[in-house]
Amino acid sequence: MQKNTTRRKVLKGAGAVAAYAGLGLGMPNVVRANDKVVRYLGTATTMGTEIDKKLFEDTGIKVQYIPVTTDEVTKRVLTQPNSFDIVDTEYFSLPKLVPSGNILGMDSKRIKNFDNISSTHTLGEIGGKKIGDQGTAPKKVFYLKDEFSKEFSSEPTRWATLIPTVFNADTLGIRPDLIGRPISTWAELLNPEFKGKASILNIPSIGIMDAAMVVESMGEYKYPDKGNMTRKEIDMTIGILIEAKKQGQFRALWSDFNESVNLMASGEVVIQSMWSPAITAVRTQGIPCIYQPLKEGYRAWAVGFALSAATKGYQADVCYEFINWYLSGFVGGYLNRQGYYSAVPSTAKEYMAAYEWDYWMLGKPATQDIMAPDGKKLAGAGEVRDGGSFEERMGGVACWNATMDENRYMVRKWNEFVAA
Asked: Greatest CA separation found in the chain?
């Protein structure tokens, strides 16, 4: 699918989003010995100029971005481990990355807030209750057997695969003003009522999970594990998508963050796969947009930091300093105000006003206007966050982004859908 570059112009703020398109931020091309510069591989959607400024003020560390797509992050780790110091990647990528030996086990003893990491990751539960773990739930791939291991450990060890940073429970975004009626199920994505007005995410590993949520909600099939389909299940799922596409259901298949924002903001699309900061970006333009809670639950994701196996000595020390700063609260509070969840909620709380914490984390009605990090209004007094509290939203997780055993076959079939 060819991207319309004008769609990149939609976002004119929303701090973290700027990093995705802005990405050099004036960083030097030449790194001198003992400069505190971190070569950062990732999509950079959880970074931004305000974060960079604060990082440099507090630590003297500068970030040199290597901006790529989600799939390209994995390719770079597998093929060019010497080209970065730290990688920002998703837990669902770990079954592909860990066997390569190109990322190190992360030393939990060097992470100041390791014991304060959310139980959603370490135990797979929230508020003492188990949450859905279909797919690559963080708890399944949280530990390695040792620092250089290429195998996951089912028991806690000193060595973490990733040091988690942010996570969320994803659902469909809708334009309530253009739909004009309640939406309560994933099945609506393929409702002929929205023919030519729907869109799905064109990242195979994630898009097929959204498709599986739709297929189950339509009553077509119940998957034993939506995150690890058989070839027969993949064929069936992709077949349903291809038929819908041939019927003209999809206005577009988006793979660029800003593209998803513009599709929704322009009204070209009224229902689609969406990410929380994209909802934020639409709302800050004064356009109604809801991250719709659905009865079947959410598809969750989580990201974190790991070091390249080539990152050693002084450079490793700088990376650990960067990670400890990242988890110390400023970034968590900043990103929580975009709808993300910090992996260390206790430190994020210190950087949020009480009314912000109540709105974003406790699901309470706003007692005053809720503002985005760039100062634009997101919600007015009396409004409640879409989906409610942290415990309600994460407690409603049905599955996590995943890498399937049949991943190569799945990607091939997904590409047939894209080409159909």
From this structure: 61
Decide: helix, strand or coil at residue 42.
strand
* Cβ atoms of 116 and 142 closer than 8 Å: no
Is 262 strand, coil or helix? Answer: helix
Gap between the Cα atoms of 100 and 151, Å rounded: 10
What single string gives the DSSP state of each residue in 70-92? Answer: HHHHHHHHHH-GGG-SEEEEEGG
Q: How many CB atoms lie within 10 A of CB 219?
A: 8
- Given the structure tokens 């630590």, which residue do they identify? 59
Alpha carbon distance 386, 389 (integer Å): 9
Sequence-distant (6+) residues with CB within 8 A of 217 are 185, 186, 187, 294, 295, 296
Write the CA distances from 332 to 119, 348, 351, 403, integer angstroms. Answer: 16, 4, 8, 27
Report how far residue 388's alpha carbon sits from residue 270's, in angstroms, rounded to the nearest whole number. 22
Q: Are strands 397-400 and 298-307 parallel, antiparallel or unpaired?
A: parallel
Each residue of 133-147: pLDDT tens digit? Answer: 999 999 999 999 999
Are residues 176 and 337 in contact, defined by beta-carbon separation less than 8 angstroms?
no
Pairing of β 397-400 and β 152-153? unpaired
Domains of the chain: 5-169+300-349 (3.40.190.10), 170-298+374-419 (3.40.190.10)
Per-residue pLDDT of 294-338, as tens digits, reads: 999 999 999 999 999 999 999 999 999 999 999 999 999 999 998
Cα–Cα distance measured from residue 105 to residue 109, given in angstroms and rounded to the nearest whole number? 12
Q: Tell me how many degrees the CA angle 229-234-237 measures, rounded to the nearest 5.
A: 115
**Are the beta carbons of 317 and 302 closer than 8 angstroms?**
no
d(CA 365, CA 24): 39
Residue 14 has pLDDT above 90, yes or no: no
Cα 317 to Cα 32: distance, rounded to the nearest angstrom:
16
How many CB atoms neighbour CB 144 within 10 A?
A: 23
| Beta carbons within 8 Å of 29's beta carbon, 6+ residues apart | none
Round to whole Å and give the CA distance between 385 and 363: 6
Overall pTM surpassing 0.85 (yes/no):
yes
Residue 330 neighbours by CB distance under 10 Å: 20
The kind and range of the H/E element at 397 are strand 397-400
CA distances from 321 to 44, 61, 237, 306, 384 (A): 18, 9, 44, 13, 36
Burial of 176 (0-12, 13-18, 19+ CB in 10 A): middle
